Each structure stands twice: as structure tokens, then as C-alpha cells.
Amino acid sequence: MHTIIRTYVGLRPSHLDYDFVIEEANDVKNFINLIGVDSPGLASAPAIAEYVTNILSELIPLKPKSEPRTPRRPWIILNRMSVEEKQNMYEKDAKFGQMICRCELVSEGEIVDVIHRNAGARTVKAVKRRVRAGAGRCQGGFCEPRVIAILARELKIKPTQVLLDSDESTILVGETKENLA
Q1: Over the chain, what HEC string results?
Q2: Whole-structure pTM value
Q3: Residue 10's pLDDT is what?
Q4: Comparing C-alpha atoms, which of 143, 157, 68 is closest to residue 110?
């Protein structure tokens, strides 16, 4: 246990007086609250989805798509690939050979991939949630500066503009050393 730095627990909203609360929010138009979906929430998920669809259909026009959704391209997870598959990824793009997160074995190529997906990662925590860079034993002590640099480069912003998680969560506030030249 001496190697554990942080641990996490789950938190879900619960309601003391009711089982499930499924209703349109009073303060946000077309937003449906799902509160207190404790056990048997997983088993109830299909019925809940149908119920929410019925609520929404009374609020906004819902039209079934004529064509099914285009499937997402598969996630690239190097540490689940065979040696041959890893070699193929590296031959396509050398960034897949550059390890950024040593603890979780996440390459630069994987981080670049999640940044450039639909609804791609835009913050350090978004990268962490998608590919686990920073979720290992060192909790980003090694890789976070590299993730910041990659986000800045790929999003074409300054490193000081890279956010940890939200609009108010800046990480860097300026240069650490003055230019002495």
C-alpha cells in the first residue's frame, strides 16, 4: 500500500424521499433530471431511457434518423495491443513510440488521437479520463508537463492557456524563467 498516492470513491445523487426522480428541470429548459437512480438502476436503464424519450417528445420534436449513426473509430490503446500491432502503429506514426505516461504506458500518439477526435480532449483531465495519462502511481508528476505541451501544440494555444479541467482551472500562470538573452 505504500505506493498508493490517491484513491477515488464514487458519488451519485440520491434522494431520501423517493426511489427515482425523473423529470424536466424547473430551471433549465429541455433538461431532464435523473436523481436517485440507485439499485436497480442498471436493470431499469432501458425503461428509464424510454420514459425520458417520452418526456422529451412532448417538449421538442424528435425524429428517428433514416440512417444509423456512423460508428466511432476504435480507441487506440497500445498497452492492450500485441507487439506486432504496436509496431504497425509506430510505423504509421512515430508518436506512438514516444511514451508520455510511464505509469499507464500512454504514448504521444494516443494523446494526439484523443485530442483530434469528435468532442476531443481539451484539458489535462479530459486526456486523463480518455487515455489514463496521469492516472497512474505518480498521479501526473512525470507526464503532466508533457501532456500540457502536447495540448498546447495540438490546440495551437500557449501552455499558459491549457486548463486542468474547467474554464477557471489554469495550471500555468507565466514563464518560470525570464529570458536572459
Answers
A1: CCCCCCCCCCCCCCCCCCCCEEEECCCCCCCEEEECCCCCHHHHHHHHHHHHHHHHHHHCCCCCCCCCCCCCCCCCCHHHCCHHHHHHHHHHCHHHHCEEECCCCEEHHHHHHHHCCCCCCCEHHHHHHHHCCCCCCCCCCCCHHHHHHHHHHHHCCCHHHCECCCCCCECCCCCCCCCCC
A2: 0.67
A3: 59
A4: 143
